[in-house]
Amino acid sequence: MRPFSSPSPFTWVTCTLAFLPAVLTTPLPKRTQGVSMGLDTDFPDPSFLKAQDGKWYAFGTNGNGKRIQVASSDDFSSWTLLDIEALPTLSSWETDKEHYAPDVILRDDGKYVMYYSGEAKSDIGHHCVGTAIADKPTGPYVPSDTPFSCRLDQGGSLDPAGFEDADGTRYVTFKVDGNSIGHGGDCNNGIAPLVPTPILLQKVQPDGVTPIGDAVQILDRSTADGDGPLVEAPSLVLHDGTYFLFYSTHCYTDEAYDVRWATATNITGPYTKTNVELLKTGDGLISPGGATVCGCGDRMLFHGWCDDSKKQRCMYHAGVDLSGQTANIV
Ligand SMILES: *[C@@H]1O[C@H](CO)[C@@H](O)[C@H](O)[C@H]1NC(C)=O
């Protein structure tokens, strides 16, 4: 069904008065059960955490005049966009444009570490992952002088997300933006030869920002899996001994954009794709993706086009149930 479509007209044949109240009731727009809009404004690629003050804070891609947007909520249901620039200063490697997909962790020393993507001065149109540190969840986040990952020869680095393993070891997942150096077409990777868009896992020191060893690949796009031009937006969660890697497939502009998950019993993989669309276009959602699932495993934020004009990506929240190798929206 088309998102936000009005109810189909019914044919007026014969109707007793007793039926009238029921058929004249205007149904609410149908939505995927368990999914609700949290911010009716442009707030793409949302991530979130519960801060030391007990509130939820969400972070979004540049929009509403901010490089990095921040919203807060007491109950994960009612959200307020804050008039705060979370990243008021820039690092020397980045331009003032295109700050994408921030993710924030609370470090053991009480500081907040933001991972984000910024445009590389040395390679306009391509991105590096940077890190920035703050004393409060709303910032100001002070960026590191050096990028965390660039890989510009492979297209750049994007979509970082922090992860803390059961033993406290910290990792960062991110996407190698291969399609930015693809050969054109769908998200610049629709024309053969298609290029890889790997999801990498980088172990880091307890400071959250210093890499330990080399990053390892844990996922990639595959035509056989129906991923379209890319996989992106990783979000890693551990539940009952199973690692759940949530990700989006297809171009974010496309109605085929979605949220899927893969599972593994070892953090480094191998990850088995379920190829199940946890969220997809329909039932009031348009191109849902860019999801983050919290470490608690029971809730998520994601974005979808606010309406058919496809100009802004609104933030949605949903409940998640993880069981065995399976994820469900609840
Ligand atoms: C996970 O895989 C890595 C790489 O193969 C291996 O070194 C490590 O021992 C594995 N960990 C567990 C808990 O099996």
3D architecture notes:
The protein is an all-beta fold. It has one domain: Glycosyl hydrolase domain, family 43 (Tachylectin-2, Chain A, 5 Propeller), CATH 2.115.10.20. Helix content is 2%, strand content 37%. It has one helix spanning 20-24; strands at residues 35-39, 47-50, 56-60, 69-73, 80-81, 100-106, 112-119, 127-134, 142-143, 157-164, 170-176, 199-204, 216-219, 231-239, 242-249, 260-264, 272-273, 289-293, 299-305, 313-323, 326-329. The strands form 5 sheets. Strands 1, 18, 19, 20 and 21 form a 5-stranded antiparallel sheet that branches. Strand 7 and strand 8 (127-134) form a beta hairpin. The longest helix is centred in the first third of the chain and has 5 residues, at 20-24. It is globular. Mean pLDDT is 92; it is low at 1-30. Bound molecules: 2-acetamido-2-deoxy-beta-D-glucopyranose (NAG). The site of 2-acetamido-2-deoxy-beta-D-glucopyranose has 2 residues, from loops. 2-acetamido-2-deoxy-beta-D-glucopyranose (NAG) binds next to loops. Keywords: Glycosidase, Hydrolase, Signal. Residues 1-25 form the signal peptide. The record marks 159 as: Important for catalytic activity, responsible for pKa modulation of the active site Glu and correct orientation of both the proton donor and substrate. GO terms for molecular function: hydrolase activity, hydrolyzing O-glycosyl compounds. One of its GO terms (biological process) is carbohydrate metabolic process.
